[in-house]
Structure formats: C-alpha cells, structure tokens
Amino acid sequence: MKDTNQIMLERIIITTTEGSKTLHIPEWNECYHSQHGILQEASHVFLAQGFDQIDSDVFSILEMGFGTGLNAFLTCYKAQEENKKITYFTLEKYPVEEKELRELEYWKLINKGNAEETYFNLHQAPWGELTEINENFSIMKYNSDFFELMNLPVSSIDLVYYDAFGARVQPELWENEIFSQLYGTMSEGALLTTYSSKGSARRAMQHAGFKVEKKEGPKGKREMVNAWKI
User: Fold this and answer.
1) pTM, full prediction
2) Model pLDDT for residues 161-180, shown as the tens digit of each residue
C-alpha cells in the first residue's frame, strides 16, 4: 500500500461478519479486506475473476499491495492444485508485522498440513530476491511504493491483482498515472482484476488503454472490474 502521509498508520485487528479477522486503520476507517468476509472476497475477485481467466499453465502475476499475504497464499495453493507454474511479483511499502500475522491466523483458512509453514515462508521470503516456495510457485517481493513500479525490473506480466486501498482514502492510486505504469508492465492480452468499479477509476483505466468490463462483485459489493490490455 502507499501511505499518502509517508508514515505508518496505526492498525488494529477486527472480526468480519464471516468470523474471520482483518486489519483496520482507524484514522482512515479503512480495512485491508472486506468486512463481509476475507475469503469470499479474495476467492471471487482475484481467483475466480483473475486466476481462472488466464488460459495458460505458466504465467506471471503482479500484486499491487502484498499486505497480509492472503492473495499470494491462496494463489500458491491454487497453483499447486491445478499444477500451474506461477511467478508472483508484489509491492508493499509497509509490511505487516509477524505478531499481527499470528493473530490473523490466515493459514487456518487452508485445510492443509503445511499451511502455516507456507504462509510464513511467503512473508519471510527476502525482499528483492526471487524465492521458490514450492515447485509451482515462486515469489519476488519489493519493499516499494506503488509509484516506484516504473523503476523495478517488472515486465511481461500476465495478470495484475490490484488490491490498493480505496479511492476515498488514497485517490492517487486510482488515477491515470498508476494505471498507465501498470499497462506498460503487462503482456498483450493481460488482465487486471480489482474489487473497485468506481466510475473515475474505470475511466482512468480506459485512458491508460485498457478494455474495461464490469463484473458481478463479491458479497456486499454489487460490481467489480476486469480490465484487459488489448
């Protein structure tokens, strides 16, 4: 995430309506995940409307906002289950602390014996080094601001998970500049998927060159967006 004040804001842990936990920033009244439930949101927006839309057994993903690591964690297991080979790039300026991760307990969302180890392997992977988590999934994490993307060796991306904080608190992350940068990193025919369907954000994506499609949103949200590089 990109903090407009360039400082680390206070985070607390709250419980969603499905009983899972998420991080909340009181100063912004903003959560890292949907308060309707973290698993259903991530599975719908990033897996069903993202991962499942890529017709290839080998592809790259760029996640804007590593955060709690939930999207990477779910994607890692999906890659194993479907025997797809994923190279996963992600940017995060303010990493979540281990004590927060342990209280969130996201590894319990996956009914696998090695889930906790895998979850922490993702978080403990060194910054700036491509790290193999398993034979199907490798991750490259950058401790960087979103607007540093143009200075990073990231290119030929097939799928973008755009999981930035909402435009209400960080409007600059939903404007033309960032979408133009993303467009430049993506391969022909690549997909950007995001939970937001705000009109100004869709227009910014279109201005950058994307073909934008509204999709049915996850629980608690009427619409979301798929944006294709054409």
Assistant:
1) 0.93
2) 999 988 999 999 999 999 99
